Amino acid sequence: MRFTKMQGAGNDYVYVDCFAEPVPNDPAALSRQISDRHFGIGSDGLILITPSSVADARMRMFNADGSESQMCGNGVRCVAKYLYDHGIARKRTLRIETGRGILSLDVETEDDSVRRVRVDMGEPILEAARIPTTLPGHPPINAVLKLDDQEIRVTCVSMGNPHCVLYVEDVERAPVREMGPRIETHECFPERVNVEFVQLCSRGEVRMRVWERGSGETWACGTGACAVAVAGVLSGRTDHRLLAHLRGGDLRLDWGTDGHVYLTGPAVEVFSGEWREQ
User: Fold this and answer.
1) Which of 72, 78, 156, 226 is catalytic?
2) CA distance 165 to 124
3) C-alpha to C-alpha distance for 237 and 16, rounded to whole angstroms
4) Which of 78, 156, 164, 221 is catalytic?
5) Mean pLDDT of the chain
6) SS3 of residue 111 by DSSP
7) Do residues 64 and 70 make contact, with C-beta atoms less than 8 angstroms apart?
8) pLDDT for 37-53, tens place per residue?
9) Is 78 part of the annotated catalytic residue set?
10) For the chain: N or C, fewer Cβ within 10 A?
11) Ordered domains of the chain (ranges, CATH)
12) pLDDT of residue 71
């Protein structure tokens, strides 16, 4: 099976071009194997680029633990780059089918290769039952989440997948690896949750780290950055335009007057190879 390794702000996935390759029989098991950074290729998960009857292509995304997720903002930018650079769809605006619906992506090229992509991520989901979470509020804003003997304030939104945002004084010292998995599997989140730890720099700038459900701490999360932009506006901390610094790079967010969140960031092809069945 031919594959391509790609990354967006350090959020790395293994991509399979299912225009040329058959769809894997068990993509969940394959994702677990190839994601292993010691015995596999090493990645945050697996993304299948497949034909679509309603868009230029369809994206299916699997986390490192094999669970399928509805959406990945960094991943879908790389799908757009692959479609354009490999001649599958040479369009400045691409439409990609995802678990969140059909998204529109504008590509920026340099030397006829995609360098950056702007994604219309759609409107955030704010109804608690659809996030989903049992915390009170639509959405829960600065809600109290009980974590053993602690009480922490969180704001929850969905960008097609659930997010829990909390603010810290120093993101580098935040207990991401200790607290992240406990919040991910908290009973208030019936489908688990992605967790964003955010340090305010100004009303237009934040630093953040992400604990992704099914993958652990990743160097970036596109939907997570979108969730932080929305949570910041809802809680009165930040403006509608936001620069987010993540471990793997910077992402720009804009919660537009049309209610849609726009995400802009890099897309990079790292290498290609052949995976032999284990």
Assistant:
1) 72
2) 14
3) 40
4) 221
5) 97
6) coil
7) no
8) 999 999 999 999 999 99
9) no
10) C
11) 2-120+265-274 (3.10.310.10), 128-259 (3.10.310.10)
12) 92
